[in-house]
Specification:
The structure holds two protein chains of two kinds. Chain A is built from 13 helices and twelve strands. By secondary structure, chain A is an alpha/beta fold. Chain A has a single domain, classed as P-loop containing nucleotide triphosphate hydrolases (Rossmann fold, 3-Layer(aba) Sandwich), CATH 3.40.50.300. In chain A, the strands form two sheets. An eight-stranded mixed β-sheet of chain A has the order 6-7-8-3-9-10-12-11, with helices on both faces. A four-stranded antiparallel β-sheet of chain A has the order 2-1-4-5, covered by helices on one side. The N terminus of chain A is likely disordered. The longest helix of chain B has about 40 residues. Bound molecules: adenosine-5'-triphosphate and magnesium ion.
Chain lengths: ~350, ~325
């Protein structure tokens, strides 16, 4: 008999108070010839069924590496996870055997990638690629699996799905390709879906359609969604809560409502102020000054201090913990009160 | 697709004409008189010589000679006759088979060994196996066929027979059927094996870095399936191209191998005919080789379209 993930992971409801997925003090480093790249330095976040967590942060802040660590698709080496836990329903995935891990990947936790053209295999039809999930993981016959693929393509609203199952990825538009990625990822009803910048490669109107689709699918299936993006505009409509990352750390954690009303970290504030706004047309955008930190040699103290308008002496020496502001809200800034109050 | 094939075949006519004219000119420019060579050291009868020269159009200007020849090839499928009055096509038919057997044996050995070693190296990148495979390909590339041929002939043909008493690898001739071709086939394939190994290694390693491989892993597929299905299909595409183009090289490269192992193929014939200045035979062999190049390349392009759905021919 084929072993299923139920053998190694708790079934529905047995995980008690644990969140559906909890990343806990995760550290990831890449041991390269140039030195140790500390890409993730103690990230913690959680996501629950039906909940959407948006992970924000500029390029290189470690959003994707964290996601890949959850999926277990980092190349190790060069990647190492010296510390941390990734608990799925209370079970630490990092302690599972590779075999057990493979049973989680794609079936219980799935992922969609930024550029669907390069993320899909060019030499197989989209139907083949979607139905592979059913053939490999569910042992279905080719014909049955193909039927399932058509159903899924219908579900992600690809027009004329039946006629198009035997087409190749390059024969689809960008938006349709991303729908195919989505169909493939939700094939086996995963409990957690990680979407790594799913709309970045698409034009604006298509972006909105894809986000709507993801939101609808999530409502139907109650999966936990981790949405990685650097587009704050996208986040407001779909996310429940936000984790802002900087230099491999969470610098602010809050509900969408709170963060838009009043950010509690200077970096978040900078991000929010760089969203183009119609009412401020013509004015200078607040772009965060300076460059992202060198991960080979992180700044001492708060990693954001070289770029921070609120910097004081202790920022250079003391690493700020994630101060609890209220309930689940937190900010990794010594001066979060000043930031919250909008003083500059 | 059909129109594409026809267009490609039409395009190959100038290639065929150019190549044959070139070789015709080169043979024509060789020093010495073919009729005199025919008679060997003896003094030949001047009348006979004159008759023969007339008969083989040897007094005509080069271009006219070429026309006599190529019109026969194109309109009658006739490769001419040699100086012993044997039709070249008949002379070459059996020899062609020998060379084709040799080249195909080499191609199969090349594909199996080259792709196999290349995949192995790619999956063990940076490890001792990889380094060893790479080092041996360098060795293969740098040792000329002439040397490796004689060494293998001596070790596997002569010595092995002495030790085991069994004639596993015949050292000369084609008396032992397919077995006769194994050793020569391996020698002929040698350098190509090395290149193919390296190409395979690079191709697979590159494919394994592609985004769609990460997707396949994220789908929860086993490593075996990710490599064997998702990566391999993509990595094979450039290898097919290389193999197809190499068939022509192997046929051409057979000249040396056939000499070493004394195989009566067109390579050996080419050697003799150049010596005897039998223009029709030399040009006939080259014509056939050029045709094989053209057909093999066309076949490769068509295979390409089958393997890579992004490619469509109009
Ligand atoms: N294989 C690797 N070797 C060395 N460094 C790596 C490797 N993979 C990622 N990194 C580094 O880890 C850091 C975090 O990368 P990550 O892809 O998580 O950024 P990101 O937040 O997703 O950015 P983006 O918005 O550009 O996708 C980057 O600085 C990157 O250079
Ligand atoms: Mg990323």
């Amino acid at each position: 008999m084929k072993k299923t993930s139920a053998d190694v992971l708790p079934v529905e409801g047995v995980y008690g108070d644990e969140p559906l997925l909890a990343v806990d003090d995760l550290h990831v480093e890449f041991r390269t010839r140039a030195g140790i790249v500390r890409a993730v330095n103690g990230v913690s976040y959680t996501v629950n069924p039906g909940e959407t967590l948006a992970v924000l942060g500029e390029s290189g802040s470690g959003k994707s590496v964290t996601a890949q660590a959850i999926m277990g698709i980092l190349d190790m080496p060069p990647a190492h996870i010296p510390h941390g836990e990734i608990r799925f329903k209370g079970t630490d995935l990092l302690k599972l055997s590779e075999e057990a891990r493979t049973q989680v990947r794609g079936q219980r936790i799935a992922m969609i990638f930024q550029d669907a053209l390069s993320a899909l295999n060019p030499v197989f039809t989209v139907g083949w690629q979607i139905s592979e999930m059913f053939r490999v993981h569910r042992g279905m016959s080719k014909a049955d699996a193909m039927k399932k693929a058509v159903e899924l393509m219908d579900r992600v609203r690809i027009p004329a799905a039946r006629q198009r199952v035997n087409d190749y990825p390059h024969q689809f538009s960008g938006g349709m390709r991303q729908r195919i990625m989505i169909a493939m990822s939700i094939a086996l009803d995963p409990e957690v879906l990680i979407a790594d910048e799913p709309t970045t490669a698409l034009d604006v109107t298509v972006q909105a359609q894809i986000m709507d689709l993801l939101a609808d699918l999530q409502r139907e299936s109650q999966m936990g969604l981790i949405l990685i993006t650097h587009d704050l505009g996208v986040v407001a409509d779909v996310a429940d809560k936000i984790a802002v990352m900087y230099a491999g750390r969470i610098v602010e954690r809050a509900s969408v409502h709170d963060i838009y009303r009043a950010p509690a970290h200077p970096y978040t504030k900078g991000l929010l102020e760089s969203i183009p706004r119609v009412d401020l047309k013509g004015q200078d955008l607040y772009a965060i000054k300076g460059l992202p930190p060198n991960l080979l040699e992180l700044p001492t103290g708060c990693a954001f201090h070289p770029r921070c308008p609120y910097r004081q002496d202790n920022c250079v020496t003391d690493v700020p913990p994630l101060y609890q502001i209220s309930g689940t809200r937190g900010s990794a800034c010594h001066y979060w009160r000043e930031v919250l109050d909008g003083e500059r | 697709m059909g129109r594409y094939i026809i267009r490609r075949l039409l395009q190959s006519i100038p290639v065929l004409l150019g190549a044959t004219l070139l070789i015709f000119t080169i043979v024509f420019a060789l020093p010495g008189d073919p009729i005199a060579a025919l008679a060997g050291e003896k003094q030949s009868n001047p009348n006979l010589v004159a008759i023969l020269r007339e008969r083989y159009h040897l007094n005509d200007p080069l271009l006219l000679q070429y026309w006599h020849y190529i019109s026969g090839v194109l309109f009658r499928g006739d490769l001419g006759i040699n100086f012993s009055e044997v039709p070249v096509s008949q002379l070459l038919a059996g020899k062609f088979q020998v060379t084709l057997n040799l080249a195909l044996t080499a191609l199969i050995i090349e594909a199996l060994v080259g792709v196999g070693l290349g995949l192995w190296a790619a999956l063990r990148r940076g490890k001792a196996t990889d380094t060893m495979i790479l080092a041996s390909t360098l060795l293969l590339i740098s040792v000329p066929t002439l040397v490796s041929g004689f060494i293998l002939q001596y070790i596997l043909g002569v010595k092995l027979k002495q030790w085991t008493g069994a004639d596993i690898f015949p050292i000369a001739g084609i008396a032992n059927g397919l077995r006769s071709y194994l050793l020569p086939g391996f020698v002929l394939a040698g350098v190509s094996i090395a290149y193919l190994t390296r190409l395979t290694r690079t191709s697979l390693a590159e494919t394994l870095r592609a985004d769609f491989i990460r997707t396949a892993t994220a789908k929860g597929l086993s490593r075996r399936r990710v490599v064997g299905r998702h990566a391999l299909r993509n990595a094979l595409i450039p290898l097919i191209t290389f193999l197809g183009a190499d068939l022509g090289n192997l046929m051409g490269g057979a000249v040396i191998t056939e000499r070493i192992f004394n195989l009566p193929g067109i390579g050996l014939q080419l050697f003799d005919s150049v010596y005897l200045r039998e223009q029709p035979v030399v040009v006939g062999i080259v014509t056939i080789l050029v045709l094989i190049y053209i057909v093999a390349n066309l076949a490769v392009d068509l295979m390409y379209a089958v393997l890579d759905p992004r490619i469509r021919y109009e």
